[in-house]
Write the structure tokens for this entry.
Amino acid sequence: MDFILKNKTILAEILSAATSFILQHVQQKKLISDHDYYELKGLSENPNKMTAELLDKLRARGQDTREKFTDLLKEEFIWEQYPRLRELFPPEPTDSVPAQEDQTDSDCLLPEKKRKTSGTNSDLTLSGLTWAKLEQYISQPGNGEKLIENLEKKLLADTMSKLEADLKSKTPKGNLSLNFEAIYKLETNRELTSFLKPGNGRKFPKIVIGTFFNLRKDREQEKLISDRNYNELKSLSEHPNKMTAELLDKLRAKGEDTREKFTDLLKEEHKKIKQTVIVCCQAAPAEGGPKNWDV
């Protein structure tokens, strides 16, 4: 069955709401050529036409490409961007099994990525967590203030002011969707596990910063792009997806040397987190991780 052809009208309508997002992921998975990518990107001012052209190009590349694109549309992070796509993929019926487990053990029987946090922020779920969900939670009366108050009590003396100073040099990641691997790294991180145990006078875990924040002006400091390009990109700060896409295109266009330097820079930023994870995995408990995400 040609899923794209069958649902072409509704797909065009849904995807045209954020054409740059789907185009980036289609190119990343090499479902279209670079030539097609730049051709489609040139239609960004006409999202309906751009989406229709994208669907036609995907269909023209054969069944294998169509199936890979359909699989991409089933990904949770894609559904976060296009909630209406869920309507095209109804859940498959499953045989009902009578619940015989002791309710006190039900949390342990859930898949790791399905577990919900407990305690103060029990309505947050790590799997599929987004900035929108975090903002919605913190905006509820008293939640934000209580989290800050609990954090100040938890930290070592003067750590809060140092943390605030450190965060001034960083910006929140534009997109936040924690997959199973990211959740596992958080739950098995030794420093974070220690921080979440009862008691005060704790160090703030570095992995949290690496998970939620990026350094400011990294590209400008490394001089991988010109000042002119930097200012152009900075003007798109209210459109993070478009800004990121433009940045990556500019870096690719500057040649192999720039691409390699950018790759090395990304590896360096990831190195601290990776080293922490290696150490933590060696000392991690056999089962589970911190269940109480209160601070």
Summary: The mean pLDDT is 74. The radius of gyration is 22 Å. The chain has two domains: 3-88, 110-283.
